[in-house]
Amino acid sequence: MAIRRSSSSLVAALIVALAVASIASAEVLFEERFGDGWENRWVKSDWKKDENTAGDWNHTSGKWSGDPEDKGIQTSEDFRFYAISAEFPEFSNKDKTLVIQFSVKHEQKLDCGGGYIKLLSGEIDQKKFGGDIPYSIMFGPDICGYTTKKVHAIFSRDGKNHLIKKDVPCETDQLTHVYTFIVRPDCRYSILIDNKEKQTGSLYSDWDILPPKKIKDPDAKKPEDWDDKEYIPDPNDKKPEGYDDIPIEIPDPESQKPDDWDEQEDGEWTAPTMPNPEYKGPWEPKKIKNPNYKGKWKAPIIDNPNFKDDPYIYAYSNLRYVGIELWQVKSGTLFDNILVCDDPEYAKKLADETWGKLKDAEKAAFDEADKKKQDEEANNEESDGEDENEDESEDGDSKLDSEAEEEKDTHDEL
Ligand SMILES: *[C@@H]1O[C@H](CO)[C@@H](O)[C@H](O)[C@H]1NC(C)=O
Fold it and tell me: Which atom number of ligand 1 is nearest to the Cα of residue 76?
């Protein structure tokens, strides 16, 4: 008995030890909650400064939040470019799980703009970080007009950006949401929003990172004697005798020479013509099934000589920076709780402890702010409900639309 008890408690102790070890083993490469001192960890880029289109960040919890003391960084000027980055100890995700996670809130009812972050490799001049600096991975929501409302997940390799082929819709309301991208060493991935899995699969099938494994043989040619006519004219069908003698038109049998027709003056009377009901068009032999039909010719599928399998398509050997680089028509996007680590459980816990803990209070604060705004608008309409106001807002909208179009163009270059 005594032996048994001690062995079972040993097992229990082992389980506890394993659980502790698995939590302790999470490697956190970067975690930013935007508490005091955040400005020492981040470098604001000079990108677009000389054109006066570089926007500034506001360290705030925004107009509504679950905790006014829990701040992030928010874009604060309309029609501006934003570029900011932070460095972390160089990391290779080869043979490891990579987790990228952050929260984002679009307070401005975003109609066109990004809410994504980038991981960059190697060494960059952070003061020059911007839209044209190559990145390794880009991840997060992107909204533009009615057509673009999706989560980007882009792997960049050898100067080419590979977008996810599956559609992953993003959140479009004005509340905080957590976006998580998990890339595993078996080349499988998951995309989560608010700790719920929205998409999962394989890097091989959901991106075109590698060239296709099999292709149609480009050198194959249809053999000369390949008969791909399914029907042929019946060689035994013969044109009936006299077929070509049938006239196309005949004199109208119904017509009669008018009574007052004067052959002296009007010339010889001829009946008007009409289509001949007997005439069936030029003769054609009837069609029969071709006994030599071989089916449609198809090039044989062969192994693609340009395909080189790469079990490490997910891996980047020197990840080193987190960057946010955006163009915003309307500002108000707030980032917080940025995490890069190797443990999905750790990320889940962080999301629960931040977004999860505050989301109900944030929703209540938003509803209150929304109600206040609506009351104010109703009051304004009562006091000066004139056409003038409407015209103004229409002009504003059309300006936004044209900017939105421009933004779409930039998006296509991703
Ligand atoms: C920063 O955000 C707060 C809260 O939304 C706002 O009151 C303040 O005006 C903002 N400051 C700037 C410079 O945009």
Answer: 14
